[in-house]
Specification:
Layout lengths: L31 H11 L43 E7 L5 H12 L5 E6 L17 E6 L5 H4 L4 H12 L5 E5 L19 H17 L5 E5 L14 H4 L8 E8 L5 H12 L5 E8 L6 H14 L4 E9 L15 H11 L7
Parallel strand pairs: 1-2, 1-8, 2-3, 3-4, 4-5, 5-6, 6-7, 7-8
Amino acid sequence: MRHGTHRAPRRTLTRRSMLGLGALAVTVPAAAAGVQQWRDRDTPAAATSSPGRTAVVIPGPATVAELPSVVTKGGGTVPFRTGKAMLGAYLDLKSKSTAQAHALRKQQTGRDERIVHVFYDWDDTLPASVPGLTDNGIPLVSWRGTSYDGIIDGSRDALLARGARRLKSLKRPVLLRWGWEMNGDWYNWGAARNGNNPDGFIESWKRVHGVFADEGADNVAWVWSPNWNSSPVADWNTYAALYPGDKYVDWVGVSGYNLHHETPATLFDPIYNAYGTHKPIMITEVGAVDYGGRTKADWITLFAQWVAARPAVGGVVWFDTDTHPGYDERWRIDTNPQSLAAYTAMARSPRFSG
């Protein structure tokens, strides 16, 4: 299994603009009392940080005027539809084949995955087919990067061209998330492992984009997807420093997990407010730790409310697995009946009918 890792940052970004949820109208059924209990228990009057825990501050209700105006189009070959979010998952369940896992989720939620997320190493052969896709399903291919020198000097153009031809052969729209979480220090394509040089990432991205264009892989929609916060926190490692430019990006994605009682606003408002005015937003990796009781279910409900209140969000891709190596969190959506019910309510709501 190949996927992103989830590490606590050295320190969290201070650039946060968090919007309250209390006064926002939503279309998702919510266990309101349980959600409020989650807020009250996990949010001290004056939040402070401690080792291994991120400080959480939930502000007062937001007004509509505080929300930025958002895109009404975009997405490249996977068009953004205002008010409609595609819902999908990285799905890998113990003791189940891919077909069995997808059948279980359809039985539980009453719907297919709109986005099917798969991961590939840099030297892998990219897929010519993706298991679990329905006729209107969209593959999200997360493809690992490599050091910048190995791309910029052209020595890996043949590998890039091979990947482009493979995705072209799918003969359907495909989302490509190359070199994700480049603002973290845990991957060899991150700026932190390439001389603290964000320009090198941008030049690499543009070269990958250019080779795909030369191969005629015009069915590919490009997903630029940083982590929700940067590690380390530095001017050269910000979203803005690593952004390749609107011409080279169709969707702005982000990874964010409720690992230390972060609210959805803490995780996702910074990227939403920075890019939602001109690019559709995709939550490319998301999940929640179960702290007992209704904690996981209530977080899922809060997340659904967050999406319902932010019209630039056009896609959500859950990290739905219990096979994540090296970690004991069970990210799958059905760790308890309450969590499954909250996820199913979200999945069946009009907001997630994209």
